[in-house]
Amino acid sequence: MEERQLPFVAQRLLGQESNAVDVGAHIGSFLSLVAKQAPKGQHIAFEPSRGKSEWLKKRFPTVEVIASAVGDENGTAFFIEDLEKPGFSHLEFKRSVLSSRQKVRTRAYQVSVRRLDDVLLNRQINLIKLDIEGGELLALRGARRTIEQWQPSIIFECGPESQFQKTGGSRFAVFEFVTATLGYNIYTFSDFLFKKGSLNSDEFRKCGLYPFRAFNFVALPKSRDMATQTDDMTQTINARRRLDFRGA
Questions:
Q1: In this structure, which long-range contacts are made by residues 84-87, counting pairs with CB atoms below 8 Å and at least 24 apart in sequence?
Q2: Whether the Cβ atoms of residue 10 and residue 193 lie closer than 8 Å to each other
Q3: Which end of the chain, N or C, is less packed with Cβ atoms under 10 Å?
């Protein structure tokens, strides 16, 4: 469901000249949406995978593709590239002992890690998307100045607690940083699209418990009234009709 909702979320959040940052660009699925919804914007993508970052540069020549991971400190880390399930590739700041099975299906190599604040500097940013398998909290910490300055919309993944074993942190820490430190409200895709309320701490926690209501979220500054979003209720109803039709 979330995958089908993402295009409508992007449509709501992006204007023709919006500038977006895609952290964990992978094969460019989200970049394609960005290029469609914000063709006049200046976009930046981060992808530590050597092969995928080169491929992204060719596929999106107008996007600044940076072959680096993102965190709360500049430095290096080990990128564990999952050859069977590339979407589960992740960073490790300390090498763990791999089983023989893991050695066969993964490839590990050292990559640079950059703070978003140090890369973006004073560039105006309207949207940040984060999908980096448990590294989202570190990336947000490294983007605090940018977020406070430009108040961008944020799309981020937050999986179950087990996802944080490699990078530290917790779902609660993510919630507290986004809501208390950054001053944002958090919504599931469905709640955002259909203008329901934001999540409290317990609701956010339960999203990560079976049967897993949501793994992907929208975060908006608390000062931004949901009623002032660029989309209106008619567009929302039409989006829901299209979703219902596709699911039929």
A1: 86/26, 86/27, 86/49, 86/52, 87/26
A2: no
A3: C
DSSP 215: S
Position of tokens 């909290």? 137
Report yes or no: 129 and 22 within 8 Å, Cβ to Cβ: yes
- Asked if omega into 211 is within 30° of 0 (cis), the reply is yes
Q: What residues does each domain of the chain span?
A: 2-247
Q: Measuring CA to CA, which residue among 59, 71, 2, 16 is closest to residue 218?
A: 2
**pLDDT per position as a tens digit, 166-201:** 666 789 999 999 999 999 999 999 999 999 999 999
User: In this structure, what token pair is assigned to residue 243?
Assistant: 């979703």
Which residues touch 118 (CB under 8 Å, ≥6 apart)?
74, 142
How much is the mean pLDDT over the chain?
88
Q: pLDDT, tens digit, for every residue of 26-64? A: 999 999 999 999 999 999 999 999 899 999 999 999 999
Instruction: Map tokens 């490839």 to a residue.
Output: 107
Instruction: Tell me the residue type at 3.
Output: E
Exposure string for 194-219, b = 16+ CB within 10 A, e = fewer: eeeebbeeebbeebbeeeeebbbbbb
Closest CA to 87 of 63, 52, 115: 52
Q: Residue 188's beta-bridge partner residues?
A: 217
SS in 3 state form for 33-67? Answer: HHHHHCCCCCCEEECCCHHHHHHHHHHCCCCEEEC
Q: For 6-15, 77-86, 116-125, 212-221, which range has the lowest pLDDT when averaged over its residues?
A: 77-86
Superfamily, domain 2-247:
Vaccinia Virus protein VP39 (3.40.50.150)
